[in-house]
Amino acid sequence: MKADVILGLQWGDEGKGKVVDVLAGNYPVVARFQGGPNAGHSIHFGDKSFVLRSIPSGIFREDALNIIGNGVVLDPITFRQECEALIGQGIPVKERIYISRKAHLILPTHRILDAASEAAKGKSKIGSTLKGIGPAYMDKTGRNGMRVGDLEAGDFMQRLESLRKKHFSVLRQYDYEYDPDMDLQEWLSAVEYMRGFNFIDSEYFVNKVLCSGKGILCEGAQGTMLDVDFGSYPFVTSSSTVCAGACIGLGLAPNRIGEVYGIFKAYCTRVGSGPFPTELFDETGEELRRKGFEFGAVTKRPRRTGWLDLVALKYAVMIDGVTALAMMKSDVLSGFDKIKVAVAYKVNGRECAHVPFDTYAEVEPVYEEFDGWGDLSGISSYGDLPKSFRDYVEFIERQTGVPVKILSLGPDREQTIIR
Ligand code: IMO
Ligand code: MG
């Protein structure tokens, strides 16, 4: 069997959690392969709502095992909070989660470093979620990091002290006040809590699952435009959010990848700093934010909003090798008289259909306009959707060369059309 991948094609918050939850029933294993508690994957069913941070969105399925892969950076404190909230809802997390020994740990001092670095950047700050993601990945690639498997080592406390010392020496370069023992006791207690979980060599585990004829669903966090290589650098996160990240973050060979589900919103949002060519600063942007409830699931920050950007979407489809698209939050566009889509950019007065290298370039979107559509509630088959809506979907399919197989018409599991 192959491993299928779900990932965001924009700047995060595309609705990946919902799609994983909808598809998870078909997969015995769901695996997160990168990112950490900067993610906030919202899931709604019945009268219940959850926001998952590091735990894969297969956790609600009785028959699914959830892997936290080696590519993830895990904060024991948030992990424990997340687990306890789920246990409170009757979900047996310990039986359903396996953690890679090679996943890196986020220390409280990583969060301090994140805050100090952002404060020092001033106006040019990234707009990080301040969860310690960047500093934790810096320690990983700098070969200083601590991993989940280190919890099983006799000298865990010495390793911790030595890494903390490194962090304090870096912090001396910043003019930043902090409490060196911030959250340390809570972190140590959460580390003890984590010891009750199954730690595995997940690269062996996932390959065995595939060899035994079972499928895996790999759940990406953030989005392609936040990828450390291909996103709008430096306004990106610190991991590989693209499809290749699933290989690296789980130990899967590239020929093990099957379907690649690319998730995008019918419009665009971005939270934090960085370029956003189709951003709207007017009443329409405000309406998108209000109707789409576009506020960060993690940081509660209002998200920036704008029209769909096909230049960026086609770029993401290319980098990720997307085989099926899922268009989310279609209902949010209901009631707009006209809907716009960027089909090209004007860069320094010249039209192009290329994401420019220079993040700071003046980019002006070239739009095509579509008729809006009305209320979509209660519609459960593609053929019953308004013609203007189908025109929009089919235009996106022609432009990207990829079928839109999943359409989300509302937050609930049930408000989904699978073509
Ligand atoms: P999900 O998985 C949206 C953004 C931050 C910031 C930049 C770097 O819910 O889609 P970091 O904390 O990684 O150093 O922040 O990336 N960002 C996200 N935006 N959704 C996310 O995750 C994000 N994770 C990080 O706002 O601009
Ligand atoms: Mg989010």
Automatic annotation (TrEMBL):
Pfam families: Adenylsucc_synt (PF00709). GO terms for cellular component: cytoplasm. Its EC number is 6.3.4.4. It is an enzyme of class 6 (ligase). GTP binds at residues 12-18, 40-42, 303, 329-331, 408-410. CDD domains: AdSS. Binds 1 Mg(2+) ion per subunit. Keywords: Cytoplasm, GTP-binding, Ligase, Magnesium, Metal-binding, Nucleotide-binding, Purine biosynthesis. IMP binds at residues 13-16, 38-41, 129, 143, 222, 237, 301. It is found in: Cytoplasm. One of its GO terms (molecular function) is adenylosuccinate synthase activity. Belongs to the adenylosuccinate synthetase family. HAMAP family: Adenylosucc_synth. Homodimer. Plays an important role in the de novo pathway of purine nucleotide biosynthesis. Catalyzes the first committed step in the biosynthesis of AMP from IMP. This is Adenylosuccinate synthetase. It comes from Candidatus Merdivivens pullistercoris.
